[in-house]
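Risk register update: the risk of archive-format incompatibility is retired. Evidence:
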Amino acid sequence: MVQKNVISWFEIGTTDLDRATKFYETIFDVTLTPMDMDNIKMRMFPVTDMMEGVGGALVDSGGFHKPSATDGPLIYLNGNPNLQAVLDRVLNAGGTIMVAKMEIGPEYGYMAVILDTEGNRIGLHSNQ
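Archived output:
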């Protein structure tokens, strides 16, 4: 069986969940949904179908997740329809652009890498 998506869920560690929520809501112009449990607080990114799409959240797990600008996997978040619009909001939201927008190739679109307010290195990808 071939899976529709290789990734099904991701979690971005935070040290200040409110600050991180404001950052991602600002740069993507979305509203994150709270989902808190006894040992973890989450702010979920919008997704239309959790069973078919890729979902993810910002998390405050009391230290289980550790933000990093250098270590661990590098995830790429969807910057469509135009990556530059997302990048234009990063600095004012408190982030840093580590790798400016660059073309991967005509068939693969564009990418950039940012550092969020929590110290996480996050990739961005879009068709334009």
